[in-house]
Amino acid sequence: MYAQMVKTEADRPRTLEEMDPQERAFQERIDAGIKIEPKDWMPEGYRKTLIRQISQHAHSEIVGQLPEGNWITRAPTLERKAILLAKVQDEAGHGLYLYCAAETLGVSRDQLTEQLLSGKAKYSSIFNYPTLTWADIGAIGWLVDGAAIMNQVPLQRCSFGPYSRAMIRVCKEESFHQRQGYDIMMKLCQGTPEQKAMAQDALNRWWWPSLMMFGPSDAESVHSAQSMAWKIKLNSNDELRQKFVDQTVPQAEYLGLTVPDPDLKWNEDKGGYDYGEIDWAEFFEVIKGNGPCNRERMAARVKAHEDGAWFREGLMAHAEKQAERRRNAAA
Amino acid sequence: MSSEWPLWEVFVRGQHGLSHRHVGSLHAPDAEMAINNARDVYTRRNEGVSIWVVKAGDITASSPGDKGPLFEPSNSKVYRHPTFFDIPEEVGPM
After folding, report:
1. How confident is chain B (94 residues) per 10-residue block, as mean pLDDT?
2. Which residue in A has a C-alpha nearest to residue B45's C-alpha?
3. Helical H runs in chain A?
4. What is the distance between the alpha carbons of residues A178 and A172, in angstroms, rounded to a whole number?
5. What single-letter DSSP state applies at residue A206?
6. According to the model, what pLDDT value does residue A11 have?
7. Would you say which domain of life the source belongs to (chain B) (predicted)?
8. C-beta atoms of B24 and A97 within 8 A
């Protein structure tokens, strides 16, 4: 999940009887499955929650370019390098679609960027982990993008039109990302013992952070009831996490790799895997800014923004000059 | 941040598409950069053969509240549809 710990103000959703007529009409539209569009009336809480969630998602796409970008110059073959470049380019595009969807809610992209750079806005915890070997690029595509798809497929039906349409586009491209990642893992696992060991090591380090992407357990996530009533969120964190585990464990088995969880066991009764306890202390530390790469990631973003200021201004000054020339020529 | 780049709406006509469809928006300092960016962002996978960009500020949209008065009159004029008229079979296709 690329947006984590997005809080709505309400502790519990209000019933239709408690709502004023405008809010009630809004909720009834959502219940009937009608999309909400930018010009429609919406409760302030709905607007705010969506701005937070969509912008956090957008920030994640932008910051997410850094861990993978780390291996572009060191990709082992030209083909792998070209694929990785295309993937990172897609991620920039996803950030762009999402910022535009957020902007239909009345914020500007520059405001959102400012919130990211000042540390006020969050991005997905997963991008605070380092990419130490080439196999990490495979693990990210397979696990991280796989977890993202698990979350984004239902979001294609989310109640806010621009967000749901952005997700439809994103999901198509995300599928390319996941497959290219798994393809890297397959090659490594069919390769030399050293290559296979590298793949196993990457799985060991990315497995738990990937499970954390779905956010805190349902018992802890007190604010999700309102998001679910508004159909901004369609499945609970634990539901999606379970689905991810069930889908991913056989994929690991196919590779001949071991999932780093001694408590992982098939549960015939529930028709899914039981898995071990997530290290929530680590999760909350990373969210708070104390993960392995939080500082490095933000420093890279801030540096790019500050060093690029003269260029952004230059382009704007040039555009204004050209526009003025055209005006004078027309006069 | 001295001045914000304006927002542009992007329309793309697909390979075999008859008309341009709205595909999204982006920020760019001018129209030329908007086209360049739209090409990179919205046509990476054969999506189209022609791009239009329009400054978002130049678009006026109808408001959802006007839906009734704007579109209702056409619903009440059923005779605008050819299927409204019964033509005897003997007349043949028309």
Report:
1. 82 91 93 95 87 94 77 80 90 88
2. A173
3. 21-31, 44-63, 65-69, 78-103, 109-117, 135-139, 145-155, 161-189, 193-212, 224-229, 237-255, 280-285, 294-307, 309-330
4. 11
5. H
6. 65
7. Bacteria
8. yes
Q: Alpha carbon A221 to chain centroid distance? A: 18
Residue A26 touches partner B, C-beta closer than 8 Å: no
Using the Cβ of B43 and the Cβ atoms of chain A, whether some distance falls under 8 Å is answered with: no
DSSP 8-state secondary structure symbol assigned to residue A179: H
**What average pLDDT score do residues A242-269 get?**
97
* Among A85, A97, A324, the residue to mutate for chain B (most B Cβ within 10 A): A97
Are B25 and A103 within 8 A, CB to CB? yes
Q: What's the whole-model pTM score? A: 0.90
DSSP β-ladder status, A265-267 and A272-274? antiparallel
Q: At what angle do helices A109-117 and A294-307 cross, to 10 degrees?
A: 130
Are A150 and A244 spatial neighbours (Cβ–Cβ below 8 Å)?
Answer: yes
Q: Which residues of chain B does A39 touch, with a Cβ-Cβ cutoff of 8 Å?
A: 61, 63-64
User: Which residues from A are below 8 Å from B2, CB to CB?
Assistant: 313, 316
The DSSP string of A7-24 is PPS-SSPPPGGGS-HHHH
- Please count the other Cβ atoms lying within 10 Å of the Cβ belonging to residue A70: 15
Q: Which residue of A has its CA nearest to B65?
A: A40
Torsion sign, CA atoms A279, A282, A284, A286: negative
User: Above pLDDT 70, what percent of chain A?
Assistant: 98
Query: In whole angstroms, how far apart are CA A281 and each of A275, A278, A296?
Result: 17, 9, 21
- What is the residue type of A303? K
Interface confidence, given as ipTM, is 0.80
Instruction: Number of A to B CB contacts under 8 A, please give it.
Output: 52
A96 → closest Cβ in B2, B30, B41: B41
Nearest to A171 by CA among A97, A117, A106: A97
